[in-house]
Specification:
By secondary structure, the protein is an alpha/beta fold. 28% of the residues lie in helices and 24% in strands. Strands 12-13-14-15-11-16-10-17 form an 8-stranded mixed β-sheet.
């Protein structure tokens, strides 16, 4: 048996002012064919799992392009088409193959392509023909299109949010694809649209129990795989929304029944899934009233992991205006501020203008006297499932009792080592503000018993009714 594996991944916020070009991929993850390092990246789960399993099974493995960009605005046409061409050329050179294993996101939108993954899978199928098994992992924040399902034999979504099960789902995909290639199973896909868009945090009920029940169905009564595509609310495409995907072993009626039951369970809990986040000041009031610490505030509207700029000043400004000390905030994206801090050196005091660079969604720039407390060139942050993420050159700035981690590379906060590598211990703070929607939870929940998700202004506003959708299918609860 001969397998080919590659990855092309990006989550697109079609409302974001930041275009996603080729440099965004080269800055984050870009490994040409055969050059992937001996560690898994967040987008290369299938390739990493294939290295292990193909060795055990005695299969030949050909490794193609692995590329991923930080979520942002619409991907440029030249970026998508050139990366697609590179991946397909790698596949062409590897033929003939029995299995194709892809690491995709599922919510990539490019200029002229509302369904990049569907387009890519169609072209892969045209290259390899009908007899080759095609499988892919997807981020649950995907737009599960009919074309994606039709062109692939198997699609497996991460079940956890935060995505701590990247590798587990990759191994699951490999085992299923092997079974299909050897003729052991015949996957039949069943998709049910829930006609809703929901944020499904698996770290708490009612979603925690639902995901556990979802996984327990696999391997029973002919059910091969179960996935929930949460959808990505900030992508204005026709396929946006929450959907259930079930693969049965040659029994589409059984798969359809299970998918419909799961979809009905999801829609039945939707009122419990409504987001009720406090405003910035209300969140600060709650944090100050909490006995103990630290209290972690999630600035989800400025989450670079959802395509936001990551440079908003709304929460930082209120911390300073209210005179709140023993606080920390990060990561704040401001390459120019980082450059000035490195020029001045540790211990320097500078009048600086930080944040608020990209546009109205970022708020106004903040003018302040900053003390450079620490510098770290080319800093790497621990990520999900044992991966790492580049933050670029980083500076720790102190502003009136608030320590701010400023980065030269745009990224959401994933791990407390975002702070600790610069000598800032979040455990000793009263309030820690992390620019992330949920992926921070796996790490930061270990240092606090109080997490507050904040309804701050920004590019990822939680009131979806404010977004100027033009393409999504309706009706779509809660719109």
């Amino acid at each position: 048996m001969r397998a080919f594996s590659a990855s092309l991944s990006c989550e697109t916020n079609t409302f974001s002012p930041l275009p996603t070009g080729l440099s965004a991929f080269h800055e984050r993850v870009y490994f040409p064919a055969g050059s992937h390092p001996p560690q898994m990246t967040h987008c290369s789960g299938p390739l990493w799992a294939a290295r292990q399993r193909c060795r055990e099974w005695g299969w030949d493995l050909v490794e193609g392009l692995v590329a991923s960009a930080m979520p942002g605005g619409t991907t440029t046409r030249v970026a998508y088409e050139s990366l697609r061409s590179e991946l397909l050329s790698d596949l062409q050179a590897a033929l003939p193959v029995n299995v194709v294993l892809l690491g995709l996101h599922g919510a990539m939108v490019a200029d002229g392509y509302d369904d990049c993954e569907g387009d890519l899978l169609r072209r892969v199928r045209e290259l390899v023909g009908p007899g080759v098994v095609i499988g892919a992992t997807l981020d649950p924040h995907c737009h599960l299109s009919a074309q994606m399902v039709a062109q692939a034999d198997l699609l497996v979504c991460f079940k956890e949010y935060p995505h701590t099960d990247i590798l587990e789902r990759a191994y699951e995909l490999l085992e299923l694809c092997r079974a299909v290639a050897l003729g052991g199973v015949k996957p039949a896909a069943s998709v049910v649209d829930c006609d809703m868009i929901a944020v499904l945090h698996t770290s708490r009920e009612p979603v925690r129990g639902f995901v556990d029940r979802l996984g327990a169905l696999e391997g029973c009564g002919g059910i091969l795989s179960t996935s929930v595509a949460h959808g990505f609310p900030w992508g204005d495409v026709a396929d946006m929304g929450t959907k259930v995907l079930v693969y049965s072993d040659g029994d589409p009626q059984r798969g359809e029944a299970v998918a419909r039951r799961l979809a009905q369970e999801l829609t039945g809990m939707r009122d419990q899934l409504r987001l009720h986040y406090p405003t910035v000041d209300a969140a600060l009031d709650q944090a100050l009233a909490h006995d103990g610490g630290p209290v972690v505030l999630a600035d989800s509207s400025d989450n670079a992991g959802g395509g936001a700029p990551g440079d908003s000043t709304f929460v930082l400004r209120r911390l300073l205006e209210r005179g709140i000390e023993r606080a920390a905030l990060g990561p704040l994206w401001d390459p120019m501020a980082v450059r000035l801090a490195f020029e001045a050196g540790v211990g320097a005091r500078l009048q600086m203008r930080i944040g608020g660079k990209v546009g109205p969604v970022s708020g106004d720039p903040l003018d302040a006297c900053c003390r450079v407390k620490a510098l770290h060139p080319a800093m790497m942050m621990s990520g999900l499932a044992g991966t790492t993420t580049p933050l670029g050159d980083c500076a720790l700035l102190e502003i009136e009792g608030v320590e701010v981690v400023v980065t030269s590379v745009r990224c959401q906060g994933l791990d407390i080592d975002l702070f600790t590598q610069l000598g800032c211990d979040p455990r000793g703070k009263r309030i820690v503000v992390v620019k992330s929607s949920q992926h921070f939870h796996a790490s930061f929940s270990k240092i606090t018993d109080k997490i507050i998700y904040v309804d701050s202004p920004g590019a990822l506003c939680t009131d979806l009714a404010l977004l100027p959708y033009r393409k999504i299918a309706r009706p779509k609860w809660p719109l």
